[in-house]
Amino acid sequence: MSLENDALEYHSREPRGKIEVNTTKPCFTARDLTLAYSPGVAIPCVKIAHDPDLVYEYTTKGNLVAVITNGTAVLGLGNIGPLASKPVMEGKGILFKKFANINVFDIELNAPDPDDVIKACKMLEPTFGGINLEDIKAPECFYIEETLKKELSIPVFHDDQHGTAVISAAAFANAIEIIGKDPAKMKVVFSGGGAAAMACANMYRSMGVRKENLTMCDSKGVIYKGRTEGMNPYKERFAIDTKKRTLLEALDGADAFIGVSAAGAMTPAMVKVMAKDPIIFAMANPEPEILPEEIKKVRSDAIIATGRSDYENQVNNVLCFPFMFRGALDVRARAINEEMKVAAAKALAALAKEPVPEMVSAAYGGTKFTFGREYLIPKPFDPRVLLWVAPAVAKAASDTGVARFPIKDIEEYKEKLESLMGNRYVVMRTLRNSVKRAVESKKILPKIVFAEGEHETILKAAQIVREEKIAEPILLGDAKTIRANIVKYKLDSLADAQIEDPFASPKSTEYGKRLLEKRQRKGMTPARADRVMRNRNYFASMMVEAGDADGMLNGLTQSYPDTIRPMLHVIGTKQGQRVAGIYMMIFKSRVMFFADTTVNTGMNAEDMASIAIETANMAKQYLQTEARVAMLSYSNFGSAPTHSSLMMKEACAIAKKRRPDLIIDGEMQVEPAVDEKIAHDFFPFSSIQGDANVLIFPNLSSANIAYKLLQKLGGAEAIGPILIGMNKPVNVIPTGSDVQDVVNIATFTSINIQNCREEMSGALENPRGNA
Fold it and tell me: CA distances (Å), 617 to each of 136, 388, 622, 662, in order?
């Protein structure tokens, strides 16, 4: 299908358009209706009447933005009117929601008179926490925004001006850093005399570009002092003394071209006359002033950006407006000032220098991004933009006095923002913080050996693990290759990390002898023990067994059986325990643990009881709350007594006998395990009343299917697998995991190490178990 057909089908399929209104409170019963509407709704109304600021407590105002246009300058389509502009405004709404969880009403005004736009916005102020002006032609847009900023006490932001200015300023800052030029000496030429050009020019001047070195051109040519044709008071601010009259003349010897005009405005001949290492930002949409391939035909030293996603360095406003408003709304800012815009630009420029997560590369077809000429600014689908830009904006608002509720603790605010990225981020942040607290109190950093130490994903994860003090990584593999990759991927924090090579390490012989002692009656010979110890799976396992490492991660590039087998041979399982793989499942309203999802194909009641107890212990360690275990089946408390259901019933009884304190029940179906009403109405005798946080499945198939199905279709986030039942803290990394997955599993491993240390310490202090 063509782009035209795809776009029309996308917008017309049911439900039509791109946004809808959803309820946030239950409205199913008469009681709900009483609270939602009359008479209950009168109570917050009275409160707000006495204290207007309470509108932020009892309504959506604090998280609601109006996207307002009169349709006089829509994209590159011109004055197509408010009706035809509606798809664009809905598009802004979907981006606000997607990237910053901000609710939007799009408002298309039949108001060609700018005073009518101002009047409408003033009347709408009580409804909204902020106003995003969009697609309004110049110079009316300047007049509208300036007037509203003076007369409203909520933030007003004209995205066409300032969004482009913020993003391009971030790219410009990084570009001049790369080429090593002084902004005060640079000659910068603008193509375009409208809203975006003027906002960009103001931002660049705040970054050090001198006014006399900044030349602005419109469709009539250079904007110079004394020109009368096509001028207005806003253009007059950028008029300079110069004899140059055309864009070509202005670009002769220029260091930068900033295009916010129209397709074809720049030619290869213009590119040729620019200075060494020219910066060319051709940002007209949908077609740039000049295509990158045309530039590259005549200049190999140019740094290029466009507004398109199919070229490098996309200057996309979505990197600004959702996060600008997120920060402004969260401090209830009265306005969006220059300091907030500069803070956003600096945050974006700084983020571009950070290692790029695998999930971002995956969103762009596996392309690897590294700071440089072809990667000046973050990508729109980089989730970290929220955590960098919104706090920077909120802090700037607080520091400059426009925030009604200034940010007091920026790190606490960042943690709050993580909840917008999904509960997975919140849960993992909590677990990482617990690891850091344990490390700080014990003054001991756990050592985790990464058996695939040459792999890019493993190295990037190891750097995060080290920098965040989750653990001290030990990298296993060819030392020369590992060091070369550390340099290649710019992982400076790993420069002095411990590296072990199974083929060169003097420990291999010692480890081989220990392995022979453990398995000489299980088919192991001296020659084979020596040979397998060159295998990194066995070597890493023995490092943990010998106490040279506290934990181990492996499996990114290998099959599950090949990864776990050496662990079982060398480290083994706890006495009386069954090894099992557990997934932490993160839903919108709860966190649960599923077992066994990865290891066992045939189990009896004793095995199931053992896994239930171990999973409950782990859930309590990680969630810091009481584990509530449901033994699942297709039967409810004897309703279908078959071999499978009776096994789960027996396993429940065994677990209760071993651990009388454990909250566990079954056999039961999923409904009473997770649905409070069903449990209360039909099984009031059960100790599980729809509040289970540990689900034990009757076999590997059902557990594996359940977690994958909920992950793919049910919106759950799955983290794991986490091994239980092993003698020491080791875990398997699933094939295809990204950097964040590896960091998460390392976090679980570190927590397990800390808990093992506490258990060992307790056992030494109380060897007979006396109270």
Answer: 60, 36, 9, 10
Condensed to tens digits (0 to 9), the pLDDT of residues 668-692 reads: 999 999 999 999 999 999 999 999 9
CB 26 within 8 A of CB 32: yes
CA distance 316 to 99: 13
The helix/strand/coil state of 277 is coil
Enumerate helices (H) and strands (E) in the chain, giving the number of each.
31, 21
Residue with tokens 């020109």: 227
For 38-69, the pLDDT digits (tens) are: 888 899 999 999 999 999 999 999 999 999 99
Q: When comparing pLDDT for 522 and 305, which is higher?
A: 305
Token look-up 């800390």 returns 754
Q: Which residues contact 136 (CB under 8 A, 6 or more apart)?
A: 69, 70, 72, 73, 114, 117, 144, 158, 160, 195
| Other CB atoms within 10 Å distance of the CB of residue 384 | 14
The pLDDT assigned to 25 comes to: 82
Residues 652, 631 contacting (CB under 8 angstroms): yes
Catalytic residues: 37, 92
Q: How far apart are the first and last CA of the chain?
A: 74
Q: Are 96 and 322 in contact (CB under 8 A)?
A: yes
Q: Is the pLDDT of residue 5 over 90?
A: no
Peptide bond into 415 cis (omega under 30): no
Q: What share of the chain is helix, strand, coil (3-state, %, to 5)?
A: 50, 15, 40
CA atoms of 751 and 763, how far apart (whole Å): 18
Residue 379 CA to residue 356 CA, distance in Å, equals 9
The whole-number pLDDT of residue 534 equals 84
Name, in order, each residue with C-beta under 8 angstroms of 525's C-beta and a sequence gap of 6 or more.
516
Lookup: tokens for 695 = 């689900």
Residues in a beta bridge with 305: 281
Structure-model confidence comparison of residues 430 and 317, the more confident one: 317
- Separation in Å, CA 685 to CA 201, 509, 632, 657, 682: 72, 60, 17, 19, 9
Spatial distance between the Cα atoms of 45 and 652, rounded to a whole number of angstroms: 52
